[in-house]
Design a protein that fits this description.
This protein has helices at about 10-20, 65-75, 95, 160-165, 180-185, 190-195; strands at about 5, 20, 30-35, 40-45, 50-55, 80, 100-105, 105-115, 115-125, 130-140, 145-155, 170-175, 175, 205-210. The chain is of the alpha+beta class.
Length: about 240
């Protein structure tokens, strides 16, 4: 599962890493993107591999009939399970023809211990920019004519590190290495090759630390740099 992530890099740095141009000028670093607010986040799609677009998180399949149904389904499509992605109606066409890179540099998950949940921030070595394997869709609201472009993040089984952190459901997002980015966007990538890419990321290339519970505050803004600072919970020392 992956419902919260970060992109703390500046827009010029992101453009340089991907050798791509932004489609708009309104991007600022995000320290907490909450999927259930359906934010507009940067992606690179198969149809525009040299552009950085901003799509709404929560995939709306093209066959959805109306705005009310779109509002319902997008809360159910923030993630797509790798194990069933070729069968699920919401994803089975997108996985073949509409794959995207979801740009990120960290994500959040919760550990459960003694009936309490503790937030962790997870990132790669050197806090490097990376990409989640994603799917995208374009949906047109027939009542207004508005087209909404949206995406979903693919998840897979957890590696050993994520099993310890996400210790109830034991899932993690599919993270693609830079060497895999172009393959993920290739139109002729076969189902077998796609499945080979949907694997747990090596834990030796990942880092994590606990953070404060500001991330779940209903009274304070959690989209701030302070959210990412390490925060120690003495009770968790019993685990190590």
């Amino acid at each position: 599962m992956c419902f919260h992530f970060t992109i703390t890099k500046e827009r010029t740095d992101i453009a340089q890493i991907f050798h791509a141009n932004w489609e708009d000028a309104g991007w600022e670093p995000v320290f907490h993107a909450d999927g259930f607010s359906f934010p507009s986040m940067p992606v690179i799609t198969q149809e525009a591999p040299c552009s950085i677009s901003r799509f709404n998180w929560g995939l709306i399949p093209p066959w959805i009939k109306n705005h009310a149904d779109a509002q319902i389904i997008r809360a159910q499509t923030l993630n797509a399970r790798a194990e069933t992605i070729f069968e699920k109606p919401s994803f089975r066409q997108a996985i073949l023809h509409q794959r995207c890179l979801v740009i990120a540099d960290g994500f959040f998950e919760w550990m459960e211990f003694q009936k309490k949940k503790y937030p962790h921030y997870i990132f790669l070595n050197e806090h490097a920019l990376f990409c989640f394997a994603g799917l995208y869709s374009h949906w047109t609201d027939t009542a207004t004519g508005e087209m909404i472009s949206s995406f979903s993040i693919i998840t897979t089984s957890a590696n050993a590190m994520m099993e310890r952190i996400h210790n109830i459901k034991q899932r993690m997002p599919v993270i693609l290495s830079p060497a895999q980015w172009s393959q993920w966007l290739q139109a002729d990538c076969s189902p077998e090759a796609i499945r080979q890419l949907l694997q747990p990321y090596p834990e030796e290339n990942m880092r994590s630390h606990t953070i404060s519970k500001l991330i779940s505050s209903r009274t304070h803004n959690s989209n701030v740099p302070e959210l990412l600072e390490p925060y120690a919970y003495p009770e968790l020392q019993l685990l190590f």
